[in-house]
């Protein structure tokens, strides 16, 4: 999980929201998740991500990308494709992916 908020991005940019419910199978999940974090950082146009999981097991990860080409590059990565297949086979009961274009963005940070 990320322990920071992504801020200061100049719109327009894109978000990929991945919401999931995990299975009980954790075999190699953490290692693969760390590798995916390393790999996505290499994608030109990747801007950052935020991630959280509820005690009840719902996980939400929001990836920020400069443009649709960056999202397509991430989706086309062979290692990412392998991880997606493994996720469907072993790690997720269900998930959804939502892609959106951000037109406006603002935030707040206490002093």
From TrEMBL:
Domain ABM: 13-99
Domain of life: Bacteria
Gene3D superfamilies: 3.30.70.100
One Pfam family recorded for the sequence: ABM
Entries under InterPro entries matching the protein: ABM_dom, Dimeric_a/b-barrel, Jasmonate_Hydroxylase-like
SUPFAM superfamilies reported for this sequence: Dimeric alpha+beta barrel (SSF54909)
Name of protein: ABM domain-containing protein
Lineage: Bacteria, Bacillati, Actinomycetota, Actinomycetes, Kitasatosporales
